[in-house]
Design brief:
The two termini are about 35 Å apart. The chain has 2 domains: about 5-110 and about 265-465, Zn peptidases (Aminopeptidase, 3-Layer(aba) Sandwich); about 110-245, Aminopeptidase i, Domain 2. By secondary structure, it is of the alpha/beta class. The relative contact order is 0.17. It has helices spanning about 5-10, 15-20, 25-40, 45-60, 185, 190-195, 215-230, 265-280, 310-325, 330-335, 390-400, 420-425, 450-465, and strands at about 65, 75-80, 85-90, 100-105, 110-120, 125-135, 145-155, 160-165, 200-205, 240-245, 250-255, 260, 285-295, 340-345, 345, 370, 375, 405, 415-420, 430-435, 440, 445-450. Bound molecules: manganese (II) ion (2 copies). The site of one manganese (II) ion has 3 residues, from loops.
Length: about 475
C-alpha cells in the first residue's frame, strides 16, 4: 500500500447523498419529496399539522387512545393535546419497561401572530397588528404574500376555522415596505432595526363604505366583510388565535429540482419523515413513539411544548394499560431505558456566508442526515451533549442500514447558537441526540432543503425504530 492509498484508508471524508446512494433509491427519494411538499401545503400551523398527522395516521390504522380498551404488541395508537401536540405509538413486543424508541420533532414555526386587538384604520388603510413568534429576521416578512390561518370562537361558543390566502382566488395580505427612493434613513440602520416589530402590520383593506358620519369607513367595511363571511364581530378577536404565514406553496427549487423550498420546514421536515417512518412499522421490539410538539420556537414552554407533562402522561397511560398500573419506579425505569432522536433541523453550510461557519464541523445540503452531538451556545451552554456511547450506537445503526449521514455544530464557536427539545428530554434521564435535515435560509419564509437529505432522515428514523 503506497502513502496515497494508506492516507485514503485512514482519513474520514464526508459522504455525498447523490454520489453514494444506491440507484434504486433515487426514484423513491423523488416520490417521497413530492409527498412531503403536499404535507407542507396542508400544514402551515401546529394545529393544521396535528390534523394532518391524525388524518395520515388513521389511514394507516392508528386509533385514538381509549382507556377502556386493552393494548397489545403491534397496536397503533395516538394521543393528542389541545389540538397542537400529538404522540403516536406502535406497541413493541418487549416489555415496555425495556424502554421506548422515541423520535421527537416540533410542528410550530416562526411566524407573525395577530395581536388580541388587531384591527385598526390609518389614513384610509386597514391593518392588523402583529406580534412575531420565534426568531425571525423582520425584514424578510415585508413585501411578500401572506395568509391568515387560525381559529376564532364566537359568543355562542362555536368555533370558526379561518384560512384565507391559500386558494388561487383568495386574497392575500402583506406587510408594506418603504420605497428605496425614500429609504435613505432606513437603509443606514442595522438590519435588526430597519424594520421594527411594531411596524409588522398586515394590510387588510382599503375600500371605505357607509355614510360620512362613520369616522373609519375602511375598518367598517372590513368588520362587515368578516361578519358576513364568518359571523364574527371585532370583540371575537380578543380570544382568537390567528397566525400569519407565507401564502405561497412548497415548490421544487433548482433546474435539477434538487431542493424543496417552502415555509415551515423547521421542523416539519423532521415531523413528516418521523411520521412516515413510524407508519412503516409492524411490531417493533421496543415500543416506538413519534412525538410532535408545539412551542419549540419560543423555548418549549407551555402546555403543548416539550416541557408540558403531556409526554409523561401519555407514557404513564401506556405503561398502565400494558402492565395493569404505572408506579413511579416503573415509569422512571421505562424512561431511563429509552432513547430519543431529537429530530430538528441543522444549519446547512451556505457558500454565500462562509465566515460564520467552520467547514470541518458544519452540515452540508446533499450530504445526508445530520447528527448533532450538542447544540447550545458559547461553551455548550444549554446543550445536553450526547455521550460517546450513545452517538456510537446511533452511528452504527445508520451505517448498518445504509443511511448517509454527517455530523455538525451550529456554526462557529462564539458566533451564536441555539437549542432544541433535546435538553428537556435528557433531563428526564434518557439518552438523546439531535439529528435532522440541513436547511438553507433557516427561519426565513422560504427555507430550502435537499431531497436526498429528506430521504435520509426518513431512513434514519426507520432504522432507529427497527434496530435499536
Ligand atoms: Mn427547529
Ligand atoms: Mn427553529
Amino acid at each position: 500500500m503506497d502513502d496515497k492509498e494508506l492516507y485514503e484508508k485512514l482519513k474520514y471524508e464526508r459522504s455525498d447523498v447523490y454520489r453514494d446512494m444506491p440507484d434504486n433509491e433515487r426514484r423513491a427519494m423523488l416520490d417521497f419529496a413530492d409527498d412531503y411538499r403536499y404535507f407542507l401545503d396542508r400544514g402551515k400551523t401546529e394545529r393544521e399539522c396535528c390534523v394532518e398527522a391524525i388524518r395520515m395516521a388513521e389511514a394507516k390504522g392508528f386509533v385514538k387512545f381509549d382507556d377502556k380498551k386493552t393494548l397489545s404488541a403491534g397496536d397503533r395508537i395516538y394521543f393528542t393535546n389541545r389540538g397542537k401536540n400529538i404522540l403516536l405509538a406502535v406497541i413493541g413486543s418487549d416489555d415496555i419497561e425495556s424502554g421506548l424508541n422515541i423520535v421527537g420533532a416540533h410542528i410550530d414555526s416562526p411566524r407573525l401572530d395577530l395581536k388580541q386587538n388587531p384591527l385598526y384604520e390609518s389614513d384610509s388603510l386597514a391593518f392588523f397588528k402583529t406580534h412575531y413568534y420565534g426568531g425571525i429576521k423582520k425584514y424578510q416578512w415585508t413585501a411578500i404574500p401572506l395568509a391568515i390561518h387560525g381559529v376564532v370562537y364566537k359568543k355562542d361558543g362555536s368555533r370558526v376555522d379561518i384560512c384565507i390566502g391559500e386558494k388561487d382566488d383568495d386574497p392575500v395580505f402583506c406587510v408594506t415596505d418603504l420605497l428605496p427612493h425614500l429609504a435613505k434613513d432606513q437603509m443606514s440602520k442595522s438590519m435588526a432595526e430597519g424594520i421594527e416589530g411594531e411596524s409588522l402590520n398586515i394590510l387588510v383593506g382599503g375600500i371605505g363604505v357607509g355614510s360620512n358620519e362613520i369616522s373609519e369607513r375602511v375598518k367598517y367595511n372590513i368588520l362587515n366583510i368578516l361578519n358576513i363571511n364568518y359571523d364574527i364581530t371585532e370583540s371575537d378577536f380578543l380570544s382568537a388565535e390567528l397566525e400569519i404565514v407565507p401564502a405561497f406553496r412548497a415548490r421544487n427549487v433548482g433546474l435539477d429540482n434538487g431542493f424543496i423550498g417552502a415555509y415551515g420546514q423547521d421542523d416539519r421536515v423532521c415531523a413528516f419523515t418521523a411520521l412516515r417512518s413510524i407508519f412503516e412499522l409492524n411490531t417493533p421490539k421496543h415500543t416506538a413513539i413519534c412525538l410532535l410538539v408545539d412551542k419549540e420556537e419560543i423555548g418549549s414552554v407551555g402546555n403543548t411544548g416539550m416541557l408540558s407533562r403531556f409526554f409523561d402522561m401519555a407514557v404513564a397511560e401506556l405503561i398502565g394499560k400494558l402492565k395493569g398500573s404505572c408506579d413511579l419506579l416503573t415509569f422512571n425505569r421505562t424512561i431511563a431505558n429509552s432513547a430519543c432522536l431529537s429530530s430538528d433541523v441543522g444549519a446547512a453550510f451556505d457558500p454565500n456566508y462562509p465566515s460564520v461557519m467552520e467547514k470541518n464541523n458544519q452540515s452540508f445540503a446533499g450530504k445526508g442526515m445530520v447528527l448533532m452531538k450538542y447544540t447550545g451556545s458559547r461553551g455548550k451552554s444549554g446543550a445536553s451533549d450526547a455521550s460517546a456511547e450513545f452517538v456510537h450506537e446511533i452511528c452504527s445503526i445508520l451505517d448498518k442500514n445504509g443511511v448517509i449521514w454527517q455530523t455538525s455544530e451550529l456554526g462557529k464557536v462564539d458566533q451564536g447558537g441555539g437549542g432544541t427539545i433535546a435538553m428537556y428530554i435528557a433531563n428526564l434521564n434518557m439518552d438523546v441526540i439531535d439529528c435532522g435535515v440541513p436547511v438553507l435560509s433557516m427561519h426565513s419564509p422560504f427555507e430550502v432543503t435537499a431531497k436526498g437529505d429528506i430521504y435520509m432522515a426518513y431512513k434514519t428514523y426507520l432504522a432507529f425504530y427497527n434496530d435499536r
